[in-house]
Amino acid sequence: RFNLQSCRTYSTKPLFPTKTIRSLLCEQPQTNVTLRGWVRSVRQQKQLSFANINDGSTLKGIQVILNDAKNAARLSTGACVELQGQLTTSPGKEQNMELQVDKLKVLGECDNTYPLQKKRHTLEFMRTINHLRSRANTGSAVLRMRHAAGEGLQKFFADQEFIQVNTPLLTSSDCEGGGEVFSVAPSDFFKKPVYLTVSGQLHAEIMATSMGRVYTFGPVFRAEESMTSRHLAEFWMAEAEIAFIDELDQLLDVTEANIQQTTQHVMDKCYDDVAFFNQWVDKQLLNRLRTSLDKPFVRMTYTEAIDILQRSNKTFQFPTIWGASLQSEHERYLASDECCGRPVFVTDYPKELKPFYMRANPDGKTVGCFDLLLPGIGELVGGSMREDRYDILQHKMEVAGMNCEDYQWYLDLRKYGSAPHGGYGIGFERLMLWLTGLDNVREVVPIPRWAGHCKY
Ligand code: 4AD
What we know:
The protein is of the alpha+beta class. The protein has 14 helices and 16 strands. The chain has two domains: 21-116, CATH 2.40.50.140; 133-443, 2-Layer Sandwich (BirA Bifunctional Protein, domain 2). The chain has an eight-stranded mixed beta sheet, sandwiched between helices. Strands 1-2-3-5-4 form a five-stranded mixed β-barrel. Strand 4 (80-89) and strand 5 form a beta hairpin. Helix 4 packs across helix 8 and helix 4 (137-159) packs across helix 14. The radius of gyration is 26 Å and the shape is globular. The relative contact order is 0.11. The mean pLDDT is 94. The protein binds 4-amino-1,4-dioxobutan-2-aminium adenosine-5'-monophosphate.
């Protein structure tokens, strides 16, 4: 008879020929260890030579010691090597273990045109050699932390019983109505204009109004002309859409927990990397992250924010009158040490400033929405309660000049069993600025795209 147990064909052998340096650094002393990686630096002395090898799994890599001068001469910065030897306890303070090399194999040589040397290079210089950025500390720390941040966001969603849904990148709608869309495909292919998505929200609403709590995490695209340090043409967003949420305050609770738990996850998983940024980029980083975990975020309405700005006695370039958009100078002031000194939710903006889908407040002037502003960064998250009343939504769409026929599917979600719901979108690169202390989104995405720049 067929027996499922006897069909287990998978092997228990390790899947990879070598362990990562990260895992070797946690092991006990042993002989006959093999590792592979890239040479970061070499220091040749008369008797012994030292090299630092890194495979991307850890910030500091591993120190290896060679007592064969001939072998040491074959090591050059940037080369890819395989080393075999004894893993021993390190007398140095920097790390637990080091490798006494018996055998060296150069897998890929590297000549002296290699642009990365032991000294610190500027972020601007590193951007000119994007394809080599992750061979240096800042670039590789960013990638490990990006991974941990994505994992932290998704762990939060999983713990709270969200379902991940995959929203399309090609779409015929413009969610934010800002017109900052990239057109794609010759118009005869889809028989109508099609764009790269600016947000998965409208599609996520389809799924939330049948599945309850959903999220989508993926790239979005905006034809942003603004060349600021906060804007990319292609960036990642984590978007949550939640049915059966009744009030904006509940949505703020979820957002706050999402950001705090993700921050905690990254600090737990990548402490060395966060400490590296604290040392070299922003000495207040750890302090700021810890404060954001210890104290609740501030909550104020747009009307209160305008009042605070007017009473601040600061000179702003843009007006601070009720009805005007909050500019980045205003957002930064509100979150700064001078004002709140921690993350701030600003809620209930004038309806004219926000997209059609946001739920109208009873005052008739504002909508149930929020922006989360972070110290030093400005807006990290945008979210709102969604208008779930058919007639009001239809009216708002008409006022916004939209063709309601094209969006009948969206109105249908209100026609057939409408549910109170709301959601938010976290800009992933701005989250990375928060976690690293870096101040330009181009540093925290491996291959950035912005106006005039699409190399590789
Ligand atoms: O505030 P936004 O435009 O909100 C939305 O798109 C909603 N539909 C999200 C939702 O409710 N599901 O964008 C959300 C966040 C911003 O707060 C900001 O962090 C980031 O996305 N963002 C950008 N990040 C990098 N480059 C750009 N050009 C960005 N535009 C927005």
